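Researcher: Last one for today. Full complex below.
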Amino acid sequence: MFSARERRNYGQVEVHNDPKRRYPYRLNFYDRPPLEDVTIEEFETFALDRLRVLAGIESSFVRNRTYDELKSVTSAHCKKYLPLAANTAKSVDTDAERRKDHIGHFVLRLAFCRSEELRRRFLKAETTLFRVRFDEDDSKERESFLKTKEMNWIDVTDEEKSMYRDQLMAACDFTKEKLAAERFVKVRWTRVPDLVEKRRVFLKQGMAWVPSSQQSSIVFQAFQSSLEEALKATSKHFSRLDEDTRIVPLLDNLSRGFLAGVPSEWSDATSNPSGDEIKAEMVDDLARKYFPMCMRHLHDELKKDRHLKHFGRLQYGLFLKVLGLSIDEAITFWRRSFSNMTDDKFNKEYKYNIRHSYGLEGKRANYPAKSCLQILQSQPSSQDSHGCPYRHFSPDNLQAALLAAYQTQGLSTSDMPEIMHAVKSGHYHVACTRVFEITHAAVGIKKGEGVGGGESVTHPNEYAARSRELEKAKAKEAEEIMLVE
Ligand code: SF4
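Model: Here's the assembly. Have a good evening.
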């Protein structure tokens, strides 16, 4: 990752090859950059996996989840994408896990140091991730880790404690017994602004007296301040990377993913788990029941105008392909939909493109369906129908379209403020996920559950596949109950 010159610049950093010395703890302040070779593949995949966890944290903020809810969603994401076992774990390659965590953090630091907005969002998400891990850490390991950090706090002596006993009890809301059991440390009050703001510490001569039960505030603040400074320093040096044609496009892609909300992780391979064949005449019914707003809109426009412009056909056609529409059924579907057109015109101007998107013409590539990230980044004109309605519609049009599409599935005007709040803060996929939850409440989906395990929608085919899956499971359950009765 670093050139020989950069390694020399970091000469004061000790590089350990012994895993136990390189990563002795699960927690990391990321105060040392990785000074080893990293393949381009690792560079990208480690960062993408970390980005998924951070995007989940951002979604939790937008969705006003409580800290406990956020913690359980983040832990589930960490388990899936970024596991970090404690030293006591048996048969786990903790070195590989910690190396991934370390490198992923530094790649994202490079990607997100470049604007004030990105730095702010990254800082907030990373500090939250650190907090979740800190809270879940093995207490002995956490204590040993903290001993290796210079927290620069001063211990409060027993004499000082008894001298200010009343003030400490009042500030911390402690009983006499609780006070006797607590240890206190003194730090500059600026290092615990959250405790000062909530008036939960005793202040004297510019120092805050922090009880041991609240010392995590000092740790989080120290983590945040050091990362904030490091991000600013990295942004100053970023121009040195500007000419690297392998890395800069990757970093651009990562930061765009974060700004658009979420990287796409859903794979086409799971699009049609039941393997059902979809017939052209079924699409209308499927669109009404299972499609997300982007595809629902394209379907309605196609029915209304009996035509779709190029990018609309591309977005919708690939979605239907991945949904399970075979090439023959796709030709039937588009031919019927373009009902104002002669056979001759259809065959000459449209059939080739449909076959092309199935990899049967031209360079015969198997084109995947577009993810939310790609759709969110498209730039439709006012004449176009493609794009993501949550991003590309005006607020009034979006609300009217949502109610027209989903009112029969339980969406109501009272849901709009929450959905529009996510839209206004630029978290379009969170708004789409909330609509998914509301319209699938009847099949057992609860608020915060998303498309499964608290995950947000990242792909229109994921939305449709999950929707169909839920309905099938419900129908099967009803069937079983009937058989028992
Ligand atoms: Fe479609 Fe994704 Fe937008 Fe939902 S968030 S409407 S699935 S592009």
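The chain has three domains: 4-148+223-255, 154-214, 265-484. Residues 265-484 form one domain.
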